Amino acid sequence: MTYHDLRFDEGEGLNRQGLSKRVVEGEVFVFREALQHFDLIDMWTNAALRGITKSVGKDAADRAEAEGFNHIHEWVDPGDVPAMTDAVYDEIAPLAAQFLDTFMGGAFPDINGYYYEETPNVRFHIPYDLAQAHKAKFNEFAKDHGQGKIAAHGPHRDSWLDCPSNGLNLWFAIGRIKPGNGMTIYPENYEGEFKFQRSGDIADGQKLNKTMTFDLHPGDVIMFHTDHVHGSELNRTNETRFAISCRLSVEKPIFPQMHIAPYLNSNWKRSSALGPLAKLPAMMQPSYVTSLALRARNKLIPSMAPGEPEIDPPETIGTKTGDVIEVALADLPVGSVRGASAALCVARLSETDVVALTRRCPHAGGDLANGWVDGDNVVCPWHNLPFDSATGRSDCASLSKLKRVEARIEGDKVIITPKTVINTDDGPAAGFVTEANLGAHTAAE
User: Fold this and answer.
1) What distance lies between CA 83 and its chain's CA centroid?
2) Region label for 240, one of left (φ > 0), alpha (ψ between -120 and 50) or beta (otherwise)
3) What is the dihedral of CA 186, 192, 198, 202, to 10 degrees?
């Protein structure tokens, strides 16, 4: 998978012929200041400000305009974020056709038409610790709008949900976005096969490679194939991320799952005669008709609806011998994390340093044994959340820490002593780490 950072150089235009084909083939592009170049930044910024004004007041909108959307949580109550997001949706949705015609005509000049999801996706992610007190309200919002709008979305491909498998995902930064509160793409997992839940999230037990994260300024856009594995970072920063994303297909859309969201034909939408019928071309695709029939069958005969995938048992490479667990050092390359037991993961930080921690993330139950090492941190693969290997803590104060137990290298083995917990607040203490005190594996938020 190839990554490109693009911008218009002064006096030179970017060669964009065949760009959409390269995106659908897996290349990832960040088009810097794209909205400024196509004179689109004000369209959506002003629409967002109108929505904020209508929902939480003009003072909040004025401050957002003056100080940036990334500070909006400082003067908008977290409990008002769902209503604010709905109001911004109302302002953004009517502009989708005009916005996309301008952007697509400039960014992809060789395209004569396309199919686009009728409503863009508005994404306000306030700092996780602030959102926790309003978790129930945020979960209710997700039931109506889908995951990833105001809370982190786990790793997924859009085609696992109700989106085309041959689509483009355009992810526009409207406010400042930085690693720690943005989106992730798993480039090494582009061509892999994964089990996934009916909700569209990746199934437990699926191994992922290190994510790609992005440092974006207002007007930048990430362009990638909808079938890249991607997701949200759990917002561990002190800033809000505000993005708007659009999904579209240059060719006739292929819907491999239970399609729901309407896709409009851009050429029909521009026509005064055909505009009201712009949804029909996508609905006439065989994959859409099949999806419609399956949805009707599943509703009428629930017993015929597909079940959840059979989950692979958690991988473990440790052998219990008395009170210790032994792991072959050769099975633990530098930078890797593996399952030492059902309750513990073991990470190799360097040639001489290893650490053993509880293997389930306290946020949503992600298996750290399927994650990776980043410096001195062990990273949860579901939402790119790092945990300090020494303390077991993350940057989200509302999350409990991981337990760390004694682990050391002896010859060609790693010796783990689960009874010795070494990162308690009061120093070393005894405490056997088991599935019982690990905590239940909760569903991804």
Assistant:
1) 22
2) beta
3) -40
Chain position carrying tokens 């419609």 = 292
Q: What is the rounded CA–CA span in Å between residue 380 and residue 371?
A: 5
Residue with tokens 């010859």: 411
Residues 6+ apart with CB under 8 A from 62: none
Question: How big is the CA angle at 27 (ends 366 and 41), to the nearest 5 degrees?
Answer: 90
Distance CA 108, CA 357 (A): 48
Closest CA to 30 of 1, 2, 70, 3: 3
Whole-number Å distance between alpha carbons of 280 and 276? 9
Residues 175/182, Cβ–Cβ less than 8 Å: no
Rg for the chain, CA atoms, rounded: 23
Q: Which two structure tokens, joined as six digits, stand for 253?
A: 């859309």
Contact between residue 181 and residue 241 where contact means Cβ atoms under 8 Å apart: yes
Architecture of domain 319-438: 3-layer Sandwich (2.102)
CA distances from 440 to 79, 82, 208, 359, 445 (A): 27, 28, 22, 12, 14
Contacts of 376 (CB under 8 A, 6+ apart): 349, 388, 389, 390
Only one residue has tokens 């949804």, namely 279
For the chain, domain boundaries: 3-304, 319-438
CB 232 within 8 A of CB 184: yes
User: DSSP assignment, residue 422?
Assistant: -
Beta bridge partners of 216: 177
Q: Strands, DSSP E only, in 276-412?
A: 319-321, 324-328, 337-339, 344-348, 354-358, 372-374, 377-380, 385-388, 404-410
For the 3-304 domain, the top CATH level (class) is mainly beta
HSE (side-chain half, CA atoms, 13 Å) at 225 = 22
Question: What would the pLDDT profile of 305-346 be if each residue is shown by its tens digit?
Answer: 788 888 888 899 999 999 999 999 999 999 999 999 999 999
The strand pair at 3-6 and 28-31 is best described as parallel
- Mind spelling out the 3-state secondary structure of 10-69? CCCCCCCCCHHHHHHCCCEEEECCHHHHCCCHHHHHHHHHHHHHHHHCHHHHHHHHHHCH
- The whole-model pTM stands at 0.90
> Which residues of the chain fall short of a pLDDT of 70?
1, 8-16, 258-259, 424-445
